[in-house]
Write a structure and sequence with these properties.
The strands form 4 sheets. The chain has a 5-stranded mixed sheet, with helices on both faces. The radius of gyration is 23 Å and the shape is globular. It has helices spanning 2-6, 71-89, 128-136, 145-156, 216-220, 222-234, 239-248, 253-261, 265-289, 305-318, 321-324, 338-352; strands spanning 10-15, 25-29, 35-41, 45-52, 57-64, 96-103, 107-108, 113-114, 140-144, 165-170, 174-180, 183-185, 293-297, 328-331, 380-384. Helices cover 36% and strands 21% of the residues. With 389 residues, the chain is of the alpha/beta class. It binds zinc ion. The site of zinc ion (ZN) has 7 residues, from loops. Residues 118, 197, 208, 210, 212, 215, 217 line the site of zinc ion.
């Protein structure tokens, strides 16, 4: 406690009631003693934000970006956005303490480097952590987008308070993250949960971004749904999709959801097919991990209630009855900020872990450690048992 007070992270609040011995001492966490920079990268856009030390996102901004253009294009754009958000804080918080990045690529957990990305160019082995550390002189943590989403939903959203959760993201790609016994399971290298590249079909025409054929992602992802929808439009199988393709030159899973909502049978079938395939792989995962909750995130499940219903039906049909007796399957709750909030959780959890303290931003002489407590600053209050301090 003394160390945390010296670091400016907690401060004495009003004294607590005495239970006979030494009175309890109330301590307030100074969430504004510092801030984080967080980024959530997607295939075609990025969201960058700043959060306080309690993980509350103070400001964020979104920009279009082509992640396939590689880090030399994407990283300067990320840092320019970060610089402007930090400048907008105008010293209202302490210094930058940590950086969290969520990226839709496999990330080697010890180095934070993407490894052999399946879909995007220029990222293999790229030193995201080094690039950001050099620019901002703050510790950096990087993880894949599904792990970040799982952490965000776990701390603030649908899976709050649960100990065994599988979070599945069905968007441009497909991935899963498992929280087992209250811990995010990353595996030996950090690739645990990469269900998108499980082999599910012998059809050689289903070429995946990873270079193989027959992966779940090549059959059921948003990209696969869009591909099949464009084929249906061109071959005249769906009037709705043909009209949408003519108006927009390409289709997305969102267009397929809209067409299905307007009664297009072909679109409804494409979504049902995707939900069944994802549900079948998910059932295997449920059999392995025995979660109490499955959280479904990403753009494709937003296409309509039918998607979630088909996933539920498939998982219940193909999982062990004991595993599904109390199993809940729900949509993610945090919406488009889920990954960003998860990136903040990742950075702050590392920062406040035993290994993280003390960290550079709070080293003696750093302005962050000299910020005076601000009256009226929102804070979380923890009470230590009497006599501890
Ligand atoms: Zn693949």
């Amino acid at each position: 406690v003394s160390e945390l007070i010296d670091l400016g992270l907690i401060t004495d609040d009003q004294a607590g009631p005495s239970s006979g011995g030494r009175p309890a001492r109330a301590l307030a966490f100074r969430a504004h003693a510092g801030h984080t920079l967080v980024a959530d990268l997607h295939a075609t856009h990025m969201t960058v934000g700043v959060s306080d030390l309690a993980g509350t996102v103070a400001a964020h901004a979104q920009e279009s970006v082509d992640i396939d253009a590689g880090p030399d294009t994407v990283m300067p754009q990320l840092m320019a956005l970060g610089d402007s958000l930090i400048a907008d804080l105008q010293g209202r918080t302490g210094g930058l303490c940590a950086i969290g990045v969520s990226i839709p690529l496999p990330v080697e957990k010890h180095t934070g480097r993407p490894v052999a990305p399946t879909s995007f160019h220029g990222w293999d082995g790229y030193d995201i952590r080094g690039t950001l550390q050099q620019r901002y002189a703050a510790p950096v943590w990087v993880d894949n987008d599904v792990n970040a989403l799982a952490l965000g939903e776990w701390r603030y959203g649908a899976s709050r308070g649960q100990q065994d959760v599988i979070t599945v993201k069905v968007g441009t790609g497909i991935g899963a993250a498992t929280i087992s016994d209250g811990r995010l399971h990353r595996g030996a290298q950090g690739t645990a949960g990469y269900i998108g590249h499980i082999h599910v079909s012998d059809d050689p025409r289903l070429v995946c971004g990873c270079g193989r054929t027959g992966c779940l992602e090549a059959m059921a992802s948003g990209m696969a749904i869009a591909r099949d929808a464009e084929l249906a439009a061109r071959t005249g199988r769906s009037e709705h999709l043909r009209a949408a393709l003519e108006a927009r030159t390409h289709l997305t899973a969102h267009d397929v959801g809209s067409a299905a909502a307007r009664g297009d049978q072909v679109s409804a079938e494409l979504l049902t097919q995707s939900a069944r395939q994802v549900g079948t792989v998910l059932a295997a995962l449920v059999n392995i991990c025995n979660p109490s909750l499955v959280v479904l995130g990403g753009g494709v499940p937003e296409s309509g209630d039918g998607y979630l219903a088909t996933i539920r039906e498939t998982v219940y049909r193909f999982s062990l009855p004991l595993a599904t007796r109390h199993l809940q399957i729900q949509r993610a709750r945090l919406g488009p900020l889920g990954g960003l909030r998860g990136a903040a959780v990742m950075a702050l959890d590392h920062l406040f872990s035993g290994d993280g303290l003390p960290w550079p931003a709070f080293a003696p002489g750093n302005p962050a450690s000299q910020t005076a407590p601000q009256p009226g600053t929102p804070s979380l209050t923890y009470t230590t048992p009497g006599g501890l301090a």
